[in-house]
Input
Amino acid sequence: MSVDQYMQALGERAKRASSIVASADSNQKNQALKQMAVALDESRATLIAANAKDLANGKAKGLSAPMLDRLTINDEAIDKMVTSLEQVAALPDPVGGISDMRFLDSGIQLGKMRVPLGVIGIIYESRPNVTVEAASLCLKSGNATILRGGSEAIHSNTAIAACISKGLEQAQLPADSVQVVETVDREAVAQLITMTDYVDIIIPRGGKGLIERISNDAKVPVIKHLDGICHVYIDDEADVVKAIKIADNAKTRRYGVCNAMETLLVHADIAETVLPELAAIYLSKNVELRGCEKTLEVLKDINAATEEDWSTEYLAAILSIKIVDDLAAAIEHINTYSSAHTDAIITENYTKSRKFLRQVDSSSVMVNASTAFADGFEYGLGAEIGISTDKIHARGPVGLEGLTSQKYIVLGDGEVRS
Amino acid sequence: MSVDQYMQALGERAKRASSIVASADSNQKNQALKQMAVALDESRATLIAANAKDLANGKAKGLSAPMLDRLTINDEAIDKMVTSLEQVAALPDPVGGISDMRFLDSGIQLGKMRVPLGVIGIIYESRPNVTVEAASLCLKSGNATILRGGSEAIHSNTAIAACISKGLEQAQLPADSVQVVETVDREAVAQLITMTDYVDIIIPRGGKGLIERISNDAKVPVIKHLDGICHVYIDDEADVVKAIKIADNAKTRRYGVCNAMETLLVHADIAETVLPELAAIYLSKNVELRGCEKTLEVLKDINAATEEDWSTEYLAAILSIKIVDDLAAAIEHINTYSSAHTDAIITENYTKSRKFLRQVDSSSVMVNASTAFADGFEYGLGAEIGISTDKIHARGPVGLEGLTSQKYIVLGDGEVRS
Output
């Protein structure tokens, strides 16, 4: 069987399973999730042994230490997977929720019902825990899933898939509700992202390069997260204490995350007040600072920022700083260079906060809060499958609701249209 | 200037205009719409003269009578455009609407704000009135628009565009908020649907062939409406009076519309009761009937349906009829052959109606109502840009809300994440 045929068969089975999962009741889906957790818990030795093969292959191939770290399954990693399954089981079921029911002049009653998307394809890189996270969120939201992990995690993912299947079986849900692509052939991805007859949406998780390649070639709609070039703008009417606390937290809480601030914008009138104190904090934490010309007049010992800095997601202990003349300049900088992920203003001024909220075109826009809050757990979604920087369907952290859609329902009593 | 350069420049201008339109206040947008109506009303002679050129070219090229009919602008058509602009001006502005604001444990307050999509590209065929409809809905929802009409309507569309520009100017909105592509080169479409830097969404309006071509080649997300293969299922527990009234209305109200029923499904136990009476109605209206084998036993004089009939959108006075054994068979037929547009069940049974609502995977699912209601005006959306048979972003009739998205907003008081 060719890879194409293999993928088509996988797609067909997923499509068939999807109509069963879509109308499975909440209890059955939750049972499946809990039984998956039990299966993972009982298969620790098998999982760790399968993972050992991947780790050995990875070392032989010369994978970097951080990549090997992300690939590793140990008891702690299994504990986390078990807990996350139990958490997803505890979340409310979004499917079937009906909203906005109202009577119309014609006599019909119109509303919207929340429904699964159908079949979701997830393409991801080395972390095997994504297999569990993605499968559980897609199942809970009533979707069938096709998972394509990285080739370096193939043994781990296959072992995890066996536990997922066991859970599905025990809850009498079709095993095809969650399928793992068990070939490392790259052609499988090319098929997955173009099988519009079987796949309703693709969610890629990984580096920007992977996501750009997939979006470029996909025929199936993609929910994607490209990068996180987040800004904090300190207005001249900012409360200095809040400004310093937030600018510190947004940059230094964690460096490698997409909601970390990459560029700090400061109003010219407050630059002398906040920048020296902030710079001292950053330098004490070994953050490299790169400033615009005006910033260099205030902070004399730092490097100059180049045009490229404004559009760079460092994901590292580096911060670019720009002094702007007013709110309009800050908003223009953000709408030009931001990746439409998360941007914040620090101000006590009511009118400026409203303007910022309205005019900044990003998936999360904040006033007097750290960009670090842009996260599915912090937003109370319970879990997230990713953060969308797209403009349609779902923006920002995507939880169970983002994996569903709404259809119209009409209840009548024999009405016809004149 | 090459077509590519021309389109890139158009896109860049649209993008720039979009940020101004996005934060224009409701009054300003409504003024623009009303001034467009005034301009159209005052330019009747110019519009009709420009249209005469298109009609003459169309006749010379041998366009069919219905196509020439759709292309024609007369006083009545101008009246309709004027009225539709006034109606859109009277609709509530969706932009900036805030929902679901709530405090979270961290102290931040989280909600969602409705925002425009940005730049919308509309690709359509011969009807010049689409120019006004699409431009007005996109403007009201805060988006910039690039309109690419059919080459056969180029003079009409350019004349309408001049009125639109006048309206925009008088309301002090950028003229680039609505741009009409003024070249008939097909390369313009190829550019428009791949300019992901400038265009946020494409809405094609026209025949299935056009829409399939565009979806296939587009890199920009597409909201599309492929076809309307709509079903009515008459259950054995249907109220016969309602069943006959609805099955008649769904098929014969208008034949050429996407929400017309194309296949009637009838439970075997009620077929003898309803089919002869229904057939008499259909035949009196010259509707051709095509039946499955079992139907032919009840209605002896009609043609046999072939496999192809079940997946055909007739858009004509033709109806295929199938007798099914139970609800499950009806749902399976619908989920196999329906175009996921609109499907209805006629039943008095509570449990079966719930099952049908839940399991039928279409953008509108109805109980005891005619499929003819699937329409933006009937649904109270005020107007519609089209009916989406897609599963993400917007399903069913798409009004102003479907032309917007929601971003997260966070209001804080200096909160940082631990």
Q: What stands out?
A: The radius of gyration of chain A is 24 Å. Chain A touches chain B through 70 residues (CB under 8 Å). Residues 230-373 of chain A form a domain with the Aldehyde Dehydrogenase; Chain A, domain 2 fold (CATH 3.40.309.10). The first helix of chain A runs from residue 3 to 22.
